[in-house]
Amino acid sequence: MSQPGAKPKSAITPTRAEDYPEWYLQVIRAAELAENSPVRGCMVIKPWGYALWENIQRDLDALFKETGHVNAYFPLFIPVSYIRKEAAHVDGFAKECAVVTHSRLEAGPDGKLVPGGELEEPLIVRPTSETIIGETYAKWVQSYRDLPILINQWANVVRWEMRTRLFLRTAEFLWQEGHTVHATEAEAVEETHRMLEVYADFAENYMAMPVIKGRKTEGERFPGAVDTLCIESMMQDRKALQAGTSHHLGQNFAKSCNIQFQDALGVQQFAHTTSWGVSTRLIGGMIMTHSDDDGFVAPPRLAPQHVVICPIYKDEVGKADILAYCQSLQKELSAQRFHDRKVVVTVDNRDIRGGDKAWGWIKKGVPLRVEVGPRDFAAGSVFVARRDTGEKAGVPRVEFVATLVQRLQAIQDNLLARAKAHRAANTRVIDTWDELKAYFTAKNPERPEVHGGFALCHWNGSKEVERRLKEELKVTIRCIPLDAKDEPGKCVVTSEPSPRRVVMAKAY
Amino acid sequence: MSQPGAKPKSAITPTRAEDYPEWYLQVIRAAELAENSPVRGCMVIKPWGYALWENIQRDLDALFKETGHVNAYFPLFIPVSYIRKEAAHVDGFAKECAVVTHSRLEAGPDGKLVPGGELEEPLIVRPTSETIIGETYAKWVQSYRDLPILINQWANVVRWEMRTRLFLRTAEFLWQEGHTVHATEAEAVEETHRMLEVYADFAENYMAMPVIKGRKTEGERFPGAVDTLCIESMMQDRKALQAGTSHHLGQNFAKSCNIQFQDALGVQQFAHTTSWGVSTRLIGGMIMTHSDDDGFVAPPRLAPQHVVICPIYKDEVGKADILAYCQSLQKELSAQRFHDRKVVVTVDNRDIRGGDKAWGWIKKGVPLRVEVGPRDFAAGSVFVARRDTGEKAGVPRVEFVATLVQRLQAIQDNLLARAKAHRAANTRVIDTWDELKAYFTAKNPERPEVHGGFALCHWNGSKEVERRLKEELKVTIRCIPLDAKDEPGKCVVTSEPSPRRVVMAKAY
Questions:
Q1: Are A256 and A343 part of one and the same domain?
Q2: To the nearest whole angstrom, how far is the Cα of B487 from the nearest Cα of chain A?
Q3: A460 lies in which domain range?
Q4: How far is Cα A453 from Cα A446, in angstroms, rounded to an integer?
Q5: Global confidence as pTM
């Protein structure tokens, strides 16, 4: 039986406790999820990481379609004249964007290739598409009968970030951006909330990543939005990750792009628009929520592969029998479905050391690892290792086949429960500045690398307090939870009145 | 019964006979497939057109995976230094590409936004990704054990085309590009052929678009390839459309990108690579192969929607009954599968004129249109119109439900047969220059707008003949068919010896 031999301290070096940011990068490396590309700030999403994105896309896309949306595709380039129309928007995105100025390369004086064919008007590579899509919608919308428009786009976008980090912040990333147009404010607000619910459902029930649904403060809103809703999740280092946003854009973009319609009474009106998006950042969130010191842990609903079967034989004599046993097992398992997706099972028959093989799959986060050796073959059993808990046990083959779906669901449930417990353990109601300061600056003796978490505090609603939190504690107001109950209190910084608590945290 | 009333000459103006290029654009417009965007050369793919692309993606992706490929994602940008490494490649793509030179916009002297933050090295927006992917592969490949690499990417690419045409030639388009690395030339050649077969299978059996599998002449090869295989299809105006290409790149890119591996004997070797791609151009091919003077005709396997049910009632009394009848019919039809895809059925209950409604769906190309009026309701029947042939007939409801899949398959088969017959009728064996010239220049009295077709001719293998064909007849050698039988003959231009016939045609 080639169980992983003497267990090293951990398969990933450093561990979370030793150096969380570096651990994150090493998990990505060990699982072959992505790597930095030679192009500054852009990543290569490797097949195992891209398979996660394909699964995210497929499931989210189904949820979008269930809520009445269709997909379309709009241009990669935005004329500078469009982007500048919405003042807040241009402020938000002009500072870091890729600008296309030429339409060819030509031989320069020294034979080097240099840009040629200068464009009359520079184009920027879309950092987000409100403006280019808005200009198009303005042509499509004439009458209230043309509304609502409920369109989503799967696309790449570029923001020239200076400090990049695989999946969390890259110059180019993949995302979806929904852009909808409505006749009334009420409908637009309803849409904004509907899509936030879709994101929350997806985060919790597919990614096993619990989230707080909330509203951003004015200072943290999307540039050009009237209201930004978000889902915020806690990573294992207790920092917050904004995992998705849904914006009520009011009539701001309708006015800058001139999206007008004639209502049922014949009156010309500006429309109300929304936009909402999630990106490959979700993969970063998934990694930081579930992975451990042995590598990535994939939630079964999104795992590229659910089960790997490793045949173990000592000689050629047993080989044929054991391989046949593994292949028929693969067939029985693959015939099953887990949440409307075919269970993906491979047999790893590579000729490498059993320990290396096992650790390889552990680091890749496959939910269930099955080993079949001569004794299992003789007994009609399988040896099953569960990735999330590390539990290992011999199980009659028939029983394993019959309980596969339950086992996968148990892992999915455990990951969510574990993440919820982690968040609960690291969320504190705090009422004084001293305590808040200690919470975010004092070292935690048990895990010196981390401190703080989510602080539920009163806030006077001012930008000045937000500025002070940021400067003195590197903390931001992540959101005003949508389900926050009315609870009059005093601002944790100024002691001024506050109607309810908000979530404060350090964030990615 | 709101059948389309007195049939106008055609739903699309102009007809194919009147002005084929303009007919093509009007079909796209009427079916709401795409439109030109405000950004020069870029198109907006509208929901109905994008649904076609989604179906193409899903089915092709499954075929790629069945042949052992996985997906990944590489950067949008390519440093100029990379693209120039392969000499033929840079010649092919440098002349029309989007060049990013700056990383932000800043306020200029007159307050206008101008490019700022000039990059040290300009980047081009990928026109194709051999170079950037090759540079990455060079790091991944060390040993023969790392081979083969079988990766595909779904992406957008940009080529700064001057004359654009929706779907057929746009500055930005969507495509897939496979990039594989192999230890031996034989394996790379095998891969090139394997993927050509996948494309041919897809074109014929999914798109119902017959293709000729062939090899490009040296002059028509992909820049940097050793061999380019292609599938060529005939459009209704008898012009050829190159619908997909599969390139054997030999060791050209392996050398320029330095993809080396140690073989089993410990010897360092350059790898052999391939690339292959199809794009949103396929949608243009589908439109031009099947559509008629009444609009788009979607092949059922890729149709965004298979059936539309239009309830027809005169008063509120019958309305509820007829609607319920339609909805239960929708349910029965939607429960079925056509080629592993759920049958998509909608009930169109919009309050618009019946004739407008029917013509709307005809122009959108939905394979089966069902109308249910009071008499159908009373008789337990449906009135079914078939898009490809225009046939209309009352059918017992039970029978329609039971024969749905056969009906869709009959349409699929008919479209392919029709396209094959069209190609056969417009393919000619030609042995003299006079006949060739007449074929491609003489007007066809029956359809004055078109002439020519596919000419099967002998060719001496020279570029000079290709040049003359292009200059004098605007004709190119589309391909040397892979199944061309050895048939010694004389070049149609020079009378020099030729080993087999090639396909000559005007082309998109």
A1: no
A2: 44
A3: 427-505
A4: 14
A5: 0.96
